[in-house]
Design a protein that fits this description.
Largest sheet: 8 strands, mixed
Oligomer: single chain
Helix content: 25-40%
Structural class: alpha/beta
């Protein structure tokens, strides 16, 4: 059976010529495997491109941003490549910046559409992928530069597209299998696809990781075993936020279900990349590109070693808690349906819901930036305008994760820890699978609350004779 490793390289791997050389060393270390590399853009380039599109839409000058993007790529090329590769890459960059300028001028004249934004954002990985490919060719590695729209056919949800899986499986196998048999190394842009009409799309947040997971899913069969490695600038998923709890450690192993919950609270991993890996039991490793020899990394696979333990606490430092209060509509059905419908129509995501048993008060949580809009949209509804008081309060969210959340002893520890520090729980919500309980607290109590929980729950350890001893606790920050 052929062993295929799909490696996704994060933004931190594309900072300087030195980090590019680290990519080369990683690929050389895994040369006994069939390899596929999925690339990210240079750090901060996607946001700079997004700013260019927004400025073009308002006819504001974006020259500074374009010049900064161009300069960063050219400086990288000058420090990384020798001739004739340097001239070839600079010509490629010149052509691509001409195309980028043309689409921005089109946005200035006709306005910014979702499809045009996707086109602008796609330049980040198009540029980094080509530079990496030429760098590898200059080091005698038989690499092939492949754009994501050659194998990822998606729906038409621009900015957040989803692949059409039967088409993706066929195209991935048709494109990659011959290259791997020849011993070539595909260098793929993540994040980018196209719909059936041929219009470019992007996969949204976590799109590069999602691409790597999709390739692994599509290639795994009776003849090919696949695994995925995400190369970051950290030793896997850390068990705490070092800014809050200095004694940070790496969680060595997680199940797919645990990883999905923890992923919500860390930029290390996006939850949507896990589902397809889980469906075909493909292992995922999260490793540090700055320390190839380290055995300190996170492995995500089917089995959990934590069982009834609390393994993580994630948090969001500010969210909007929106409350719809009415004594007049008790037992009138459809309040939640109305809320979800209004929020959905206005593209506001709800991350938590809680309702009193009397049905007098219904509370839901949205992003802090959507709080005032959520209130205005509800008040603009005939149903809510006449019968409800709508309140918005900006608070913090703490989520405890792990199969031990439902354990009465652990619940006692959670509430005891907060009570000792006079931290009031404003609302709570618990998942029916027992992997997550989420608490809302005042923003002023967030750090104190996390530290109190850490002190109380750090007594919980994994203690199995055949397993390493890990502190089964994690704290992550979601910005």
């Amino acid at each position: 059976m052929q062993q295929i490793v799909i490696m996704k390289f994060g933004e931190s791997c594309f900072q300087t010529a030195t980090t590019f050389h680290k990519i080369l060393k990683i690929l050389q270390k895994y040369q006994s495997y069939k390899q596929i590399a999925v690339v990210s853009a240079l750090p901060d380039i996607i946001e700079l491109l997004r700013d260019c599109a927004r400025k073009a839409n308002t006819c504001t000058s974006y020259d500074h941003d374009i010049n900064l993007i161009r300069r960063r790529h050219l400086e990288l090329v000058d420090s990384l490549l020798e001739e004739p590769y340097k001239t070839k890459v600079k010509q490629f960059l010149s052509d691509k910046f001409t195309q980028l300028q043309e689409i921005l001028e089109d946005i200035e004249e006709y306005g910014l559409s979702d499809n045009k934004l996707d086109i602008v954002l796609s330049f980040g990985e198009i540029l980094s992928g080509y530079i990496l490919n030429q760098f590898l060719l200059s080091n005698n590695i038989e690499s092939e530069y492949i754009l994501g729209d050659k194998f990822l056919i998606t729906d038409s949800r621009y900015n957040n597209a989803l692949p059409i899986m039967n088409m993706a499986v066929r195209k991935v196998r048709t494109l990659f299998t011959p290259l791997l048999q020849l011993g070539h190394l595909p260098i793929c842009t993540g994040f980018i696809g196209r719909n059936k009409e041929g219009h470019l799309t992007t996969l949204g947040a976590g799109g590069t990781e999602f691409t790597a997971a999709l390739i692994a899913y599509c290639l795994k069969d009776e003849e090919h075993a696949t695994r995925v490695i995400f190369w970051k600038n950290t030793d896997g998923i850390l068990n705490c936020d070092p800014q809050i709890v200095p004694s940070t450690q790496t969680i060595k192993q997680l199940s797919y279900e645990e990883a999905k919950e923890i992923a919500i609270g860390t930029k290390v991993l996006h939850p949507k990349c896990i589902g397809h890996l889980q469906n075909r039991e493909i292992p995922l490793e999260i490793r540090n590109a700055n320390n190839l020899a380290s055995t300190n990394f996170t492995l995500i696979q089917k089995e959990s070693i934590y069982q009834d333990k609390i393994i993580g606490i994630t948090y969001r430092d500010e969210v909007a808690m929106v409350s719809a209060i009415s004594e007049s509509t008790v037992e009138i059905p459809g309040v939640l349906a109305q809320i979800f419908n209004i929020m959905g129509q206005n593209e506001i995501n709800i991350s938590m819901v809680s309702q009193t048993s009397s049905e007098i008060s219904t509370m839901f949580v949205v992003n802090a930036s959507d709080g005032n809009d959520a209130k205005e949209f509800l008040m603009g509804s005939e149903f809510f305008k006449d019968w409800f008081e709508i309140r918005v309060e900006y608070v913090s969210m703490i989520s405890l994760i792990g199969g031990g959340v439902n354990n009465p002893r652990n619940l006692q520890k959670i509430f005891t820890a907060l009570a000792k520090h006079n931290i009031k729980i404003l609302a709570l919500s618990q998942a029916n699978d027992g992997l997550n309980i989420t608490l809302l607290v005042q923003k002023a109590d967030l750090i104190k609350g996390i530290q109190a929980l850490h002190k109380e729950l750090s007594l919980i350890h994994i203690s199995e004779p055949t397993r390493p001893l890990y502190i089964s606790y994690a704290v992550f920050c979601l910005k």
